[in-house]
Amino acid sequence: MTSATLTVAAARRGNPWARRALILAAWLAFALFLLLPLFVVLSEALKQGLGTFVDAILEPDALSALKLTVLAVLISVPLNLVFGVAAAWCVSKFEFRGKSLLVTLIDLPFSVSPVIAGLIYVLLFGAQGYFGEWLSDHDIQIVFAVPGIVLATLFVTVPFVARELIPLMQEQGTQEEEAARLLGANGWQMFWHVTLPNIRWGLIYGVVLCTARAMGEFGAVSVVSGHIRGVTNTLPLHVEILYNEYNHVAAFSVASLLLLLALVILLLKQWSESRMSRLNTPADEE
Amino acid sequence: MSIEIRNVSKNFNAFKALDAINLDIQSGELVALLGPSGCGKTTLLRIIAGLETPDAGNIVFHGEDVSQHDVRDRNVGFVFQHYALFRHMTVFDNVAFGLRMKPKGERPGEQEIAEKVHELLNMVQLDWLSDRYPEQLSGGQRQRIALARALAVKPKILLLDEPFGALDAKVRKELRRWLARLHEEINLTSVFVTHDQEEAMEVADRIVVMNKGVIEQIGAPGEVYEKPASDFVYHFLGDSNRLHLGDDRHLLFRPHEVSLSREAVEEHRAAEVRDIRPLGAITRVTLKVDGQDELIEAEVVKDHDSLTGLARGEVLYFKPKARQPIVHG
Amino acid sequence: MSRRISPVIPGFGLTLGYTLVYLSLLVLIPLGAMFLKTTQLSWEQFWAIVTAPRVLAALRLSFGAALAAAVLNGIIGTLLAWVLVRYEFPGRRIIDAMVDLPFALPTAVAGIALTALYAPSGLVGRFATELGLKIAYTPLGITLALTFVTLPFVARTVQPVLADIPREIEEAAACLGARPLQVFRHILLPALLPAWLTGFALAFARGVGEYGSVIFIAGNMPMKTEILPLLIMVKLDQYDYAGATAIGVLMLVVSFILLLLINLLQRRIEAP
Q1: Tens digits of per-residue pLDDT, A33-72?
Q2: Given CB atoms, is C112 within the 8 Å cutoff of chain A?
Q3: ipTM of this complex
Q4: Considering only alpha carbons, which residue of chain C is nearest residue A181?
Q5: Least CB-CB distance to A22: which of C26, C79, C210?
Q6: Which tens digit of pLDDT belongs to each residue from C76-106?
Q7: Disulfide check for B80: which of A5, B84, B147, C38 has CB 3.0–4.6 Å away?
Q8: Is the Cα torsion angle B41, B44, B50, B51 positive or negative in sign?
Q9: Which of A40, A121, A187 sits opposite C117 (nearest CB)?
Q10: Quick one: fold of A50-279?
Q11: GO MF terms on file (chain B) (predicted)?
């Protein structure tokens, strides 16, 4: 074997010691950063046995927090889903001036602190806000009430679906849609029978990420919530209250409920991702 | 159904894709739009289909101006270059799509659709693939499914965009002949786009040679090959040699349009043999002539007298067969 | 050749209109309101608020910790991406799936979990205390929390790019006599840098604004471990809307300038 082939082989496999060291380092980072926090949540929650754990979750305030979290998810996810499809449609199927600016604007909520996301709604709808007087005259409460929580959740989850769909739809192009139109489909038929099935795994993937964030949002919701127990508390806020009251076991019990949901979300994400990559293998020459 | 293209122009920003195109296509004809990439042939095809709106001009189908008609009402079958099969549908559902999209009153029942689809799949000889998905098919199979799907709605016109472009050489040849036969059977007015002159010559009744947004020549395959209307057409339709005659004049001739001899014969020019390549039935000889850097390629039958015992470096005499000298400058 | 609107694909006006109205109502107008609110302050007032020592301390902490976390992430994320793409080993699929955990896990849960780990009585904190290292309730703890929540950014942006680099390029370099480190330095690094910077910028931006995971582990002592988003909360609790708004605008402007700089850097790298 010449020295060139040796070097090639080495570049391919890498130095076996370097390889082992890197894998070990990755395992360590994984254990320390990801596994350990997970383990702590569960062990703290079960410190005083399964009974206390179940009690903490079934307690009325916890249940009402769960209900509010579910409500926020059920409103914000479908709205951002429709928005995501519309935004991805106009960005990926058409050329127009200002397109890159629009894409930047869609991503904007990602680079705004969640606390600011809460703050802006307080400035608009709070008692001293721009619409505060009008709202109180009409007996409508947004901030420190459920609508505020929904709005804040909506804001922080705006980009999720659009972000997943834009690259996917750009890659898929418009030919299948054109083919559908040539074969006599009208706009809705084309969207329903061709576009939607093609993007469905990307859509699910975006919805999964959106749900995760909507369920777990803390900062933005914290600003507009007012922390009224049993009324404007979401699950993450409930965790905070319990924790600050030094009721650690209860805090970690509710936290582990959220952790389990997060694991379910990871599974769904993994699943939709693998389906998406399978569907998107380019359909030309083998 | 005949197609008339009247004064069609199309710009993409500052780029002139089509410049006042006029073209008549007879009913039942198979026409090739031939040209290099960027010559506007695909744009013209998409305008005929209604996938693109021209900036000026009209498209007339059988006497009726369809320029303002929606793509759905033109009744055009279109086969995309990469087929654009619906990736999430089976072969059967792909072919059935057009029938299922028909308005309630005209839509056949599922039973009738199934019969129709299997009939079409039998025609393209792929009925056994009806439950597969596009990604499980080979390129040639996808191509034929795309054709079956286009034909399902009984189009009056069939348009094909580089129908063999994405296939390997052997499959391409088979499919070409198959398409030509199919066209004879169903006798549908058809237009296809290609950049491959051999393909156009083999399949089409008439060839439309395009370059830079204009039509260079329209004619039967033999006509455009034998009587090219311009230098461009001449070069595009086959290999060519250029022999300088001095005073900015030169002669164009194809490699096979040459007479070769080992001895000095009248009107023949001397040249040095640079290379000898047996290519099967013919042999190609590369020649260097004094006074020009461009080499001359000559193709003769493999058992030609002049080739016996010929070696590189020897002198050979050649004479282009008649073609008018062209003046440049 | 730029393709204009395809005449057969419908819905341009509808979808663009809907997108613009939705974004305006939910994002643009409310953000605009914040900037409008600051105009109620005079320039001197605004300057006094944002240059108050407590604000400046929080500003340094927020941006410093976010920067440190992004750098740390640049290392760990690249390591994870490299190992996941290049090696086959036991547990690869689990690690690959779990890298996204920080995105799926509510930040408050991450916050209390990390605090429980790194507090002086915690699982890791105990050892650290023995070594004389205090993690929770210090900037170090804040940096660790930010590293956790932003962990997937660098790993997930670098991973696909690394997977797409054809092996032939490295092999070609090796054939031309490059040693493994030279291959990394001259072939892989330039190819990965743009994606790495994107991940870095995303992690940094998220780190600056992060609230939920930090407030539990920070201890929240003014001048020492108080982050900017918390300071906004404090001002809001005191009904100091103008103050909160001024800090919010400050945060957005500084983040924007830094992201712009990263973007410019990225363009210079990508330019041939």
Answers
A1: 888 999 999 988 888 888 888 888 899 999 999 999 999 9
A2: yes
A3: 0.88
A4: C8
A5: C79
A6: 999 999 999 988 888 888 899 889 999 999 9
A7: B84
A8: positive
A9: A40
A10: MetI-like fold (1.10.3720)
A11: ABC-type sulfate transporter activity; ATP binding; ATP hydrolysis activity
